[in-house]
């Protein structure tokens, strides 16, 4: 496993294409049982290991040793639950008051992202069940036990309330009550055992089991359950619009079928993105309308004040739109290449009806918080998924932009306007979305409705924190919000880690990364522009002139979330000079991100400048309008400094890994006492117990035969960090 592959050779014959020997790179992680599980490019775990390589080759192994050489980096969290063998299963149903609290917790904490049942009909069935439990259908009992399990895991009761007392009693039981409920559901009517004869109820049960497995940190099993649910739903025609026939189903049944299909679609895209694996649902095979054509302007959505049902429906449809963008991004990742033109195309499609990720920065949230926790959770799910779709779309360009900046700072390439380019625009958008993700989660925690074991929120917060730490480490964009945002992110993850094993592991990674960033940036400072608080310039054109005007003006007048009434000094972001909306925006200066996220009177934050850098660069000249396609450029070619940075750039992912693996900073650019690290790569794998995150490779024997491909392609060697 520790043998290094010989470096592939590359030669060029005058006037002929390059020929490159490409070795297959395998990215495998090991779980607690020793299984090797595949993790792809879309996963934050892949980016995390690439960032470890960047940190090592930039700062040295001594500087980042606890983070770089984390003994758990070769593992993936697949939680193992200790359960007593003599426990009687199925258990009795809890008392009615406990059941009511757990059922309400389930519907509250899945609001806006999951809909498996019609809530009114389900609660009516619960009433019937408790009136006569012996005559209740085993299928409904299966559903009820699963809902009780999820309600207990996701519960975020109000402190001092009777609900908190009931939840605390359940959590303090000797046995894991959530696991008892889950196993009781499987014994009542196991949808897994009758998979070949699956009916609609079993698709509902498999969907709930998928969410449960996510909540208990068993993502691989969740991926398997979801695959079963999707296959069964295909057999039942949930994916086809023509099956939504009022001669067959009632209006309520059709709505439940459609919303269950939306739920499967959201879960599918989330798991595919978080694990970097192929999605189970191919929209080319589906005709079911995921979002109605008149969704935005329907009376349900425009009602004042909006009902909780309307908020849930709006959030669910918004999550579906975000997952469509995630699906398009995953399709690009499958080609192993990405370009600024392709990113622009997907970003423009994300702004359908003016509902792009930029709207999460403009939404005015009430100072007193949501009127009901379900309203807050629904809005949080909607906003976080929208922001993560943008982070996922732009994250590879963020890493590539970092590479270009590092080349320039180390003297490999000549100075170029790296911040006045489309790549810089997407790179900055990735950082802005990450900061805002942390801010939204912090608001939910402060308001008291943030669950401790919500797998979606934990993953989105972790992905955003990794980008924020990397931005700080590389001195890419300067913002006063760093200190407060990272403090909030770590505090929130500590809050979740009290009960969630996944959050506990993620917290360890974040704390180690934060220490490396603090240590490195103390003595290494670079000039960097100030981070913008705006995303409206991300799109080629806005949905309508009126909408563009409102978006352009709302940001400038948006009060600070932490200090709503405090007047602010507003600076002009360099982002406004980049190609943006086709419709001119008002001549109103845009606030920086720090002005949106932190109060200006806070002495603990106003003195915190990113890496101690100097003020931002002045706004550069306007760039040529919309991009024209250009030939593919491999990042391995180290990017010719004479190449215009305002044109389309395309690179492939393997070259991006190879750049950092083989990169050796010139001696003149290296801090004293740090030796070149590339010859030492890859490090020897330590022998550790089965734990979590990181990279892992298959043994080198038997070797895979080299594949010879003609064309301009990057070269790389296989890596134990994969």
UniProtKB/TrEMBL annotation:
Superkingdom, taxonomy of origin? Eukaryota
Q: Name one GO cellular component term.
A: nucleus
Q: Does the keyword Membrane apply?
A: yes
Bias class Low complexity marks the residues at: 630-640
Listed Polar residues bias regions: 352-362, 544-557
- Listed GO molecular functions? DNA-binding transcription factor activity, RNA polymerase II-specific; RNA polymerase II cis-regulatory region sequence-specific DNA binding; zinc ion binding
Entry keywords, A to Z: Membrane, Nucleus, Transcription, Transcription regulation, Transmembrane, Transmembrane helix
Name one process (GO BP) from the record: positive regulation of transcription from RNA polymerase II promoter by galactose
Q: Where is the Xylanolytic transcriptional activator regulatory domain?
A: 222-297
Region (Disordered) residue spans: 348-372, 544-567, 604-640
Q: Which residues cross the membrane?
A: 140-158, 200-216, 456-477
Does Isomerase appear among the keywords? no
PANTHER family referenced in this protein's UniProt entry, alphabetically: REGULATORY PROTEIN GAL4, TAH-2
Q: What is this protein called?
A: Fungal-specific transcription factor domain-containing protein
């Amino acid at each position: 496993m520790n043998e290094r592959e010989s470096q592939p050779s590359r030669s060029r014959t005058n006037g002929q294409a390059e020929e490159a020997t490409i070795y297959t790179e395998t990215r495998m992680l090991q779980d607690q049982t020793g299984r090797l599980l595949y993790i792809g490019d879309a996963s934050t775990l892949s980016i995390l290991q690439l960032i470890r390589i960047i940190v090592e080759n930039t700062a040295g192994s001594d500087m980042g040793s606890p983070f770089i050489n984390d003994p758990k980096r070769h593992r993936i969290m697949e939680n193992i639950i200790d359960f007593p063998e003599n426990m009687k299963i199925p258990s009795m149903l809890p008392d009615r008051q406990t059941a009511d609290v757990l059922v309400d917790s389930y519907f509250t904490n899945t609001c806006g992202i999951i809909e498996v049942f019609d809530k009114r009909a389900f609660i009516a069935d619960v009433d019937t069940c408790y009136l006569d439990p012996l005559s209740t259908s085993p299928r409904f009992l299966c559903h009820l036990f699963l809902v009780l399990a999820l309600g207990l895991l996701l519960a975020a009761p109000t402190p001092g309330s009777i609900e908190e007392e009931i939840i605390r009693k359940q959590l303090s039981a000797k046995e894991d009550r959530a696991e008892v409920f889950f196993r009781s559901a499987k014994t009542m009517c196991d949808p897994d055992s009758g998979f070949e004869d699956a009916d609609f109820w079993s698709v509902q049960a498999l969907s709930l089991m998928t969410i449960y497995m996510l909540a208990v940190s068993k993502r691989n099993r969740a991926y398997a359950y979801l695959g079963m649910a999707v296959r069964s739903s295909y057999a039942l025609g949930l994916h086809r619009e023509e099956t939504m026939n009022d001669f067959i189903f009632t209006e309520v049944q059709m709505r439940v079928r459609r919303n269950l299909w939306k739920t499967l679609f959201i879960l599918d895209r989330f798991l595919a993105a978080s694990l970097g694996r192929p999605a189970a649902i191919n929209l080319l095979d589906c005709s079911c309308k995921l979002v109605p054509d008149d969704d935005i302007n329907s009376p349900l959505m425009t009602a004042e004040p909006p009902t909780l049902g309307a908020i849930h429906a709006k959030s669910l449809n918004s999550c579906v739109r975000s997952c469509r963008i995630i699906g398009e991004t995953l399709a690009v990742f499958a080609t192993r290449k990405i370009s600024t033109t392709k990113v622009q195309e997907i970003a423009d499609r994300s702004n359908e009806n003016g509902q792009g990720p930029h709207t999460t920065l403009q939404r005015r949230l009430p100072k007193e918080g949501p009127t009901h926790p379900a309203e807050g959770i629904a809005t949080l799910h909607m906003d976080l998924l929208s922001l993560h779709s943008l982070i996922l779309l732009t994250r590879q360009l963020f890493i590539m932009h970092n590479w270009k900046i590092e080349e320039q700072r180390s003297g490999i390439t000549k100075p170029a306007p790296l911040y006045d380019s489309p790549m810089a625009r997407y790179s900055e958008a990735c950082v802005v979305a990450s900061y805002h993700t942390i801010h939204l989660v912090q608001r939910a925690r402060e308001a008291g409705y943030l669950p401790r074991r919500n797998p979606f929120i934990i993953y989105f917060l972790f992905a955003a924190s990794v980008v924020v730490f990397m931005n700080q480490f590389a001195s890419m964009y300067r913002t006063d919000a760093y200190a407060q945002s990272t403090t909030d992110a770590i505090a929130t993850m500590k809050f979740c880690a009290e009960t969630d094993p996944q959050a506990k592991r993620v917290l360890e990674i974040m704390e180690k990364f934060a220490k490396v960033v603090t240590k490195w940036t103390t003595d290494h400072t670079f000039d960097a522009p100030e981070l913008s608080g705006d995303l409206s310039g991300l799109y080629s054109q806005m949905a309508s002139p009126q909408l563009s005007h409102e978006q352009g003006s709302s940001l400038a007048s948006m009060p600070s979330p932490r200090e709503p009434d405090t007047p602010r000094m507003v600076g002009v972001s360099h982002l406004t000079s980049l190609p943006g909306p086709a419709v001119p925006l008002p001549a109103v200066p845009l606030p920086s991100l720090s002005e949106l996220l932190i109060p200006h009177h806070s002495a603990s934050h106003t003195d915190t400048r990113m890496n101690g850098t100097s003020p931002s660069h002045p706004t550069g000249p306007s760039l040529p309008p919309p991009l024209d396609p250009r030939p593919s450029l491999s990042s391995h070619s180290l990017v010719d400094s004479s190449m215009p940075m305002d044109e389309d750039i395309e690179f492939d992912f393997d070259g991006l890994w190879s750049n950092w693996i083989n990169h050796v900073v010139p001696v003149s650019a290296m801090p004293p006492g740090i030796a070149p690290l590339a010859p030492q790569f890859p490090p020897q794998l330590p022998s550790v117990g089965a734990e979590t995150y990181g990279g892992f490779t298959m043994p080198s024997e038997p070797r895979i035969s080299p594949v010879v491909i003609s064309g301009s392609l990057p070269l790389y060697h296989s890596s134990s960090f994969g």
